[in-house]
Description:
By secondary structure, this protein is of the alpha/beta class. Helix content is 45%, strand content 17%. The chain has one domain: P-loop containing nucleotide triphosphate hydrolases (Rossmann fold, 3-Layer(aba) Sandwich).
Amino acid sequence: xxxxxxxxxxxxxxxxxxxxxxxxxxxxxxxxxxxxxxxxxxxxxxxxxxxxxxxxxxxxxxxxxxxxxxxxxxxxxxxxxxxxxxxxxxxxxxxxxxxxxxxxxxxxxxxxxxxxxxxxxxxxxxxxxxxxxxxxxxxxxxxxxxxxxxxxxxxxxxxxxxxxxxxxxxxxxxxxxxxxxxxxxxxxxxxxxxxxxxxxxxxxxxxxxxxxxxxxxxxxxxxxxxxxxxxxx
Length: 233
């Protein structure tokens, strides 16, 4: 596969976008960009700055401190993943907490933040050969990407997957609380004014409620091979 393309994966919270994107990038030896992790970094920064602590929280209060944020992505060969650095600190393991999850949808609504991260994402993908997942990739960040996939699944299975993931990390949390958080994040992602989550007209929808990762990969690599063959003809 000498012909490099951009593979854009959008979808709902905990629909398996990242797991799928990582597996595809490993197989194709493509760069993997987790845009959700980038927004989580800024949410973590805001939490550390105690921006959410005030009862009079306003997103405009966050804009002045954006200049203090320096994000960098570096490939980790040992773990076959892209690590994300916030002002020089590797915070890959710190951004997956439930506290960050509860705030990231608020951060994602701020236009100035979306603009800052979109520019960064487009710069990383300018030479193609990337797998990128998020909420607005196919519609906004890379509208001309060669392959667009939209992931969905039942709220029950997505909540269970997220619950299991958190339990493995040692988080003490109930399934019902996880489900409530995912429903809230879905609502925020769909209803925001700037780049809301929605399936683009040329996206291929995959409902993975009853599909394991191997079945999803088999399906997607058939699509990838078709797209690459078409672009070469």
